[in-house]
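Bench notes, bay 3.
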Amino acid sequence: MGQARLTEEEVSARSRDLPGWSIEDGKLVRAFQFEDFIAAFSFMTRVALCAEQRNHHPEWENVYNSVTIRLTSHDAGGLSERDFELAAAINAAVPS
């Protein structure tokens, strides 16, 4: 069963509780910077495990010490609750 697409009002409300993320072209987007490539790749590994557990995989890119993540639910045709759940898990995976 597919995910339900959130309304603009729901997206706006959920976004307020998600520090560091923005909405760009209908996707949740966040850029991360790390000390070096190894730190960036380690973060990506943690995120990959979170994504696989949720069967919800990000669009992402890595250039040396930076990682940009874009989330959307293709089966919903936009943002769904699972995008916000994965974004929260990604925020928890960021080293302090």
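Next record in the batch:
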Amino acid sequence: MTRAEFMARLKQGLIGLPMTTAAEIAADYEAHFDEGVEAGRTEAEIAGALGDPGRLARELRAEASARRWTQEQNPSAAAGAIFGLIGLGAIDILILLPIALPLFGTVLGFLVAGIAIFFAGGIILVVGPLMGAPGGVAAAILMGIGFMGLGLFMSGLMAVLTKWLIDATVWYARLHYRVLKPAIDNQVQA
């Protein structure tokens, strides 16, 4: 593979990253080619040593997404990290999905339930005193406040658990990549 082919495939794989990040990565690999040519190696040898540009781009995108999640920690960054890691290893998904889907589903269910309980508490708080609830006006107000507090607690707890699950997923992917990288490198060299 020539330098131009390698760089074209790498740049194609980096589409979607911020332009400055993609340009920095491309410049780094251009420098690898420059240094290799100065050392007397051919473009094909350098490209072979660097590996498959498609896989390399997926790894770089996953790492950039994981780095963005550690810096920003917002829903967009979380989705980017998860999808970047999914793109890195489809086989890993077969191992991770049976564990992750029920966990994320349960947390999402409790989050939705917490929001529903909060709104139900608001309705009880407003409508309860007008409807003549058992225990009187004070009981209706306290019950509404209690339900709203429970809803806030559940929603907050689930938000924290969601962050922990995303952090654990990113940690797993990085660990898994570090464990497999030596085997992948040995396979490429063989």
